[in-house]
Amino acid sequence: MHGTYEANMTMHHSDVIFAVGVRFDDRTTNNLAKYCPNATVLHIDIDPTSISKTVTADIPIVGDAAPGSGANAGITAAGSRTAAAG
């Protein structure tokens, strides 16, 4: 519905969706029955009522994303891992 064809196909064929503070509204999900059918959804949100409200999270995490973002600290913008991350 919204976004480019490439972006929509990338989401549709994803294995994992790492969602931080997203709403998963109808503009991004379109048809929920067909939304990313093979993806594991990890959803982090500070508001517990937002998690699994629209898209069911396989791994729900309630909390502030800032402290929890340390898990991704070893990934740089270029996609390479730092020495600290192994």
Give an account of the 3D structure.
- The chain is α/β, with parallel strands linked by helices.
- 19% of the residues lie in helices and 17% in strands.
- It has a three-stranded parallel β-sheet with strand order 1-2-3, with no helix packed on it.
- Helix 2 links the parallel strand 1 and strand 2 (40-45).
- It is globular and about 35 Å long.
Helix/strand/pairing category? alpha/beta
Using the coordinates shown, work out and report the CATH topology. Rossmann fold
Write down the overall mean pLDDT: 80
Question: Which CATH-level-2 architecture?
Answer: 3-Layer(aba) Sandwich
Helix content: 10-25%
The domain tally reads 1
For the terminal residues, how far apart are their CA atoms?
Answer: 40 Å
Q: Order of strands in the sheet with the most strands? A: 1-2-3
Number of helices, where a helix is a run of at least 4 consecutive DSSP H or I residues: 3
Radius of gyration: 14 Å
| CATH homology superfamily | TPP-binding domain
State the shape: globular
Model regions low in confidence, pLDDT < 50 over at least 5 residues: 79-83
Number of strands: 3
Strand proportion: 15-25%
Text of the CATH class: Alpha Beta
